[in-house]
Amino acid sequence: VEATATTNHNYTSCCIATNVSKGCLGFCNIQSILDGQTGQDPEKCEADFPAIVRCMADGRNHVPCCMDEGVPDICQDVCRGEYTMITDNIKTHFSCSAYTEKTLSCIVEGIEILPGQPRSVEVEGISDTSIKVSWIPPFTNAETITEYVVNVTMLRSFDANTDSISDSQNSSQYIITPHTVQITVKVSKGTNNAVVGNLVPFTMYEVTVTAKNIHGTSLPSNAIRSLTLTPGLSKPVNTAKPPKLPDIKACCVEQGITHKTCLEKLCNIPQSSLAEVTDLMICAPWSRQTFSCLANGMDHTPCCRARGL
């Protein structure tokens, strides 16, 4: 794989959005890195590299390509959008600089063919043993997705990142259960939600969603945590219907308003913000009828006062 100018990956906008220092933005363009034209000493941008590398990976999992290119495990963190601060100890034992070009080439290739991360993942507890997971397709290469993979992991405590249970810790915080600690559900393309069952009541779960196509996968979405409901409870499936919105325009017609401008600008809520002073003057003869229709039989005085009228 060879990175060329025609397949350059420029992620400057992402770097700016994540507050990368202005002097380090040269590292937000792979071609600049390959050409040695970043304009800054890498050591001065050490603090910005986690954000830079995350933007560089762009939500895709480039690890399989890096493995094929012979990039060692210790150097594959960049391939998954992570950055390990270089310490003297690591420098003494190993250097990843020899694999920089191969890593960047994999990323350039992956940006073209791999799907991005699923967006706006939401998790909702719908019963004591099930949750509903929903998401939005990624911005990029969504049309190539063959399936989504929903990963649901039981957390042993309500505290963050607790991997093991210590005897000295308060056992009441922890859940001892014979149930499966991790569940994976595959969802076909075109479907953006899944109900995951067979969970433990009143238990915290962490959920991620990964997109997959014939070339590989995205990185997992940002992890979302959710509780299943307490034993015996379930969320009502029947919700109240939204109130019917009034037909202001039809009301104006019934009130005898015939002027096109008044009907289109004053009696049409989406267009009312476009009304100008001249429109108000033209429609003044029908002001009583217009505001009567807009009020729809309700007293809006509290709202008007709250808005400074």
TrEMBL record:
UniProt cross-references to InterPro entries, sorted A to Z: DB, FN3_dom, FN3_sf, Ig-like_fold, Striated_Muscle_Regulatory
- Indicate whether DNA-binding appears among the record's keywords: no
Q: Which CDD domains match?
A: FN3
- Alphabetically ordered keywords of this record: Repeat
* Record flagged with keyword Repeat: yes
Name a Pfam family for this protein. Answer: DB
User: Ranges for the Fibronectin type-III domain?
Assistant: 117-233
What is the protein's given name? Fibronectin type-III domain-containing protein
